[in-house]
Specification:
By secondary structure, this protein is an alpha+beta fold. The protein contains four helices and nine strands. Helix 3 packs across helix 4.
Length: 150
């Protein structure tokens, strides 16, 4: 496998959608995601495989979701996709981190300059503990949701 820790900019490209919610319809082949989940459908798509969608404005700014398969994002989202030369490794790590939690509640916040860490990295626990201290109410709610799924 590649380097254990690499910068996001080394393996992912960030694009921004210009699609407006007014451009989507209630019927279509592919889902269109906005800041709050599926907002409609289109017969075309702007994400062909898997990606990370990041809310770029509004109250949910910075919230991160993982999508897999053909779909689209509205202009409220930035789209992170794997660069061609790192696609397999990124896909494997996304699968390890997100599992079957496609377009679920935020997994973390990315401001840039962060590393992709293996799921078993001790740094992950350290980061989660720090975030729990900063946002206890959010983590209490996330823990409730996780417990309901199990």
């Amino acid at each position: 496998m590649g380097k254990p820790n690499i910068r996001i900019s080394e393996c992912l490209e960030c694009t921004s959608s210009t699609l407006q919610e007014s451009d989507v319809s209630e019927v279509g082949t592919y889902p269109v995601y906005g800041a709050n989940g599926i907002v409609g459908y289109l017969n075309g798509y702007n994400t062909s495989d898997e990606a990370i969608y990041i809310i770029k404005d509004g109250s949910g700014v910075g919230s991160v979701s993982y999508v897999k398969g053909k779909c689209s994002a509205t202009g409220t989202l930035n789209i992170l996709t794997a660069k061609q030369d790192s696609r397999d490794e990124v896909s494997q790590r996304l699968g390890e981190h997100y599992g079957d939690n496609l377009y679920d509640e935020s997994q973390n916040l990315l401001d840039g300059g962060y590393e992709i860490l293996p799921p078993d990295s001790p740094k992950i626990k350290e980061i989660e503990d720090y975030n729990r201290k900063l946002r206890p109410a959010l983590y209490a709610e996330l823990d409730k949701k996780r417990n309901k799924r199990n």
